Amino acid sequence: MDLHAQRRRALMDRLGATAAAVFPAAPVALRAIDVEHRYHQDSDFLYLTGFPEPEAVCLLLPGHPKEEFVLFVRPHDPERETWTGRRAGVDGAIATYGAQVAYPIDQLDEKIGAYVSERDRLYYRSGRDPTFDQRVLAWMRQWQLTRPRAGTGPTAVLDPAEFLHEMRMVKDPEELAHLRTAIAITADAHRAAMRAARPGVHEYEIEALVDYTFRRMGAAGPAYPSIVAGGPNATTLHYVTNDRPLTAGDLLLIDAGADFAGYCADVTRTFPVADHFSGPQRAIYELVLQAQLAAIAVIRPGIRHEQVHQRAVEVLVDGLIDLRLLSGDRQEIISNERYRPFYMHRTSHWLGMDVHDVGLYKVAGNSRTLEPGMVMTVEPGIYIAADRDDVDPQFRGIGVRIEDDILVTSDGPDVLSAAVPKHPGDIEAIRRAGA
Ligand code: CA
User: Fold this and answer.
1) How far is the centre of ligand 1, averaged over its atoms, from the C-alpha of 349 (Å)?
2) pTM, two decimal places
3) Ligand 1 mean position to 347 CA, how many Å?
4) What is the pLDDT of residues 258-293, one digit of tens each?
């Protein structure tokens, strides 16, 4: 059984034999009339089918004697295929993707009634495609009408996330292989950027180098718009304008990750445009690095996700007190979140097919316990805007974030993005070698 079949089997066992589940492919997104964005398949759909095309629907019928996995797809159309490329077609949906039966997508409304009217609940995640939501509502109205005489038909639409997204949180071997490739490509791009940055080069030139490296190495492209933020721009968390020339006194913050085979890397490095850190830059950098290393070190099965953030905050607060950027009692600063003018985001999110991957952070009111196979970022930072006149002037305009991608294993943290230098001596070495 291939991995997609194993995933469908595992999901169907959880859904139970009286349920049906519908997963539509992502709609095509338009950039302008007649111009489509590069197609990005819906992650749930891709996870369950491996099917890369738009205008497709996966129907799962757990326990159906012959047709547990039904695909609706675009049929062959020689003229359309001349314009937009080969389609798997109904035959390919069966032969290549393992559907037990497949139909042209335009038969969806006609065929789904008979399949689902024998089931008592329908799993479908609404809110992602309003047009498809309307379609599901129309089916439900139809089943309401036929139910009194048929005696069967779904009475509830439920969110499959509680089963499916729990499965996606713990990565299987194929997923880990794709993630490792996405991260290896990302590491190459960050190292190339570290070698290429110098005064006078614009942020967008570095962005182009990063995105070029992703594509050259076989990634689909950046998993999110690359942040290339020189000097004070690094204190803007989601800076993507990327149009400023770098100057010798800047730090350069790059937050960029490749999308490979549907899996996302998410890595941030901050390094000097000169071949060494200035004193104040290095003080802030070493504090963020210390917080990041300490936060990574607590990662192991059984700890709560929240502890990673707590550890980072403790180290950052101690350091901010030492640097006289904060004063007072550590506990009081943490309870009142007085560190937030310097560190205003969370330390970690799940990573996988989505950059901010699916899965609960809290279960029954408590922070989630880590398990082997989960993948998460660890990304503390310190951001001191240039106009912060309440802060010692030597630190103004400094923004530092360091982000790695971590696999939880029974032996502890596996830093998947370790190939990107982050210790100041290693960074200064690659800067001098590249210049
Ligand atoms: Ca991130």
Assistant:
1) 7
2) 0.94
3) 9
4) 999 999 999 999 999 998 999 999 999 999 999 999
